Input
Amino acid sequence: MASTDTAAQTQLLSGADILVQSLVRHGVDTIFAYPGGCSMPLHQALTRVSDKLRTILPRHEQGGAFAAQGLARSTGKVGVAMATSGPGATNLVTAIADAKLDSIPLVCITGQVPTGVIGSDAFQETPMVEVCRGITKHHYLLTDVNDVARVMKEAFLIASTGRPGPVLVDVPKDVQLASCVPDWDCKLNLPGYNPAKPEAKPEAIRQAAAAIKRARKPVIYAGGGVILSDASEELRTLVKKTGIPITTTVMGLGAYPGTDELSLDMLGMHGSVYANYAVDQADLLISLGVRFDDRVTGKLEEFCKHGKIIHVDIDAAEINKNKPAHIPVQSDVKYALTELNKIVEAPEDISDWVAQCKKWKKDHPFTYDKSYPGITQQSAIEKLWQMTADMDPVITVGVGQHQMWAAQFYKFQKPRTWLSSSGLGTMGFGLPAAMGVQAAFPGRLVIDIDGDGSFQMNIQELSTLVCEKLPVKVLLLNNQHLGMVVQWEDRFMRGNRAHTYLGPIDKPEWHGEGDGIGEMDQANRYANFVMIAKGYGCGGAYVDKPEDLEGAIKEMIAYDGPYILDVAVPYQEHVLPMIPGGMTVKDMITE
Amino acid sequence: MRHVLSALVQNVPGVLAHVAGMLASRAYNIHSLAVGETESPELSRMTFVVVGDDNILEQVRKQLEKIVTVVRVDDVSSKDHVERDLMLIKVQADKADRPEIRELSRIFRGRIVDVSPDEMMIELSGQEKKIEAFIDMMRPFGIIELCRTGRIAMIRSVNRPIVGEPGSDGDA
Output
């Protein structure tokens, strides 16, 4: 053993081998990588560690990077994607920006043209670091093979500590090919970065506990930070100890059991009536790992107008950014909650308040038109939830109406089981993200609830699912339209259809005429997703009758391999409730 | 409100672009930005003049601190400090005007660094207000060209209670 160690310490390695071995040393077991001219040495090196590190070939670099996100979001580990220079690299950009807004730990490695020709507009040259400056947590352009081991160490540290985020490592081809003896124990060069978790000051915790004790109408507002800091248990303890109702953001779904009676579900633009009422009336808002996003707050001045705000966040820059905090607590959420739980006492008497919240919840549940003769999106999601709740599935979504309905009607019980592109709102997220989850959890049920618009933005990954044997299931809520935009057209633009129909231009629906669906049979719908599925080698079926839905879902779950269930749904459904952008709870539309 | 922030940054390629890009993308109003090396070859110093209320200042500072290559950020204007700006200015100076320009330069403690038959170049350093006053004085002669470094600033070793203008140093 000792002798091999010594050998390893004096062996010359290429930059590509050092980089790839760094991945292995950081515990990476799966990478999503698409090769090209300037990343070929890296791919050659990947073949030399194939026993420890699985390389999955996506069919588009964006798919690869979202798969890496899927892995990161579901496991909490750093996701890794790789692409070649130029177009390969720029295809990662959307997923990098997405990871930045949702604070997902990601290391993206891109090939770059050789250092000698950088700046000469060489073939497939893009100044990737320049492109990514504003959308990464940090970024590197490697110019010396001696820096590879250190930069990789720094990249993983930065991506995974503090407020997580994406790190780009751009590696010119000559650096990949050059050799040196790597110093695996090298010192980091990060004088401006402190990876230690910030810990709340005892005084801040005491203030928070005192405010909770005095509160008459408290509400907990929990977000993605709770999940990122693995503080879901501590959150549950806090609710148990205090009996305070809790609402979560889209990113926070799963941090608290969706079926619990104190859960007010999601708040914000498409949040529940009861969550928005509760926050509006609250005298204390206990904000945990959230950033007062505009989709949550609407008009900032009116949001939680009567309440004091406790704001716990790991990122100092989030505190007082959008909404001033009365009790600012810069801290890792898990640490703050652990400390708070030691001293917190239940508020003196909030039974009337809790009863009021429960009454709102009873009076204004999420609802939909149950008289519709066909299948509605909401009923399909509700059915899926009822059938799979006990199977410990991971659900991914695209972006749009189906995403919001999934957030409303699928009741998540555990963190890291709901994956949604929340901040950036990237259509096409669902399928590749599910692919990454399935790679991390081969035996688990992974379902992408998708819309026909989003699904087609990364539909090519069906190929990866088949070839890499990743049995992801897709519940495709197919309404032939870009439903969320249609909804806004209906509400705010007199229903004028402006390129929101996804079928052929000679159909009346293209102009917003006709019934919007055509005949409810597969032949009249575009595209034929079952045929596409089968073309790729997936299973697939079409369903349009409510009585067939349960059987169809059963068949999908039982299928040995990836599967697309094309569900015909109407486009006229609107996601409700809705607080139009920049408005307040008083402007909430409920029908 | 006008604030002077001073950031110690790692002397690595791209750090200026990173900082400038962050400030631009978050729409902060930066009046002046000066960069230069420090006593340590690994570190550079950036000095910003930011205009905005205390909330904006707090956000700028926190967003700067989040940049990995930014080592430390100081709010210089909250302490007793010295602030300087360096200017080179070229003015029209025919024979008749030269004595007056020379006299004004002397009053402002500037230095005449180049003279030609009908132009003069003057070097002047000092506080922003002084520099601006000098520019106003030169305007009637005809300013041909002007360039300034942007503000640099340093906190005084002994911080005395601030009397009058922050950064006031009695220089001209």
Observations:
- The first helix of chain B runs from residue 15 to 25.
- DSSP finds four helices and nine strands in chain B.
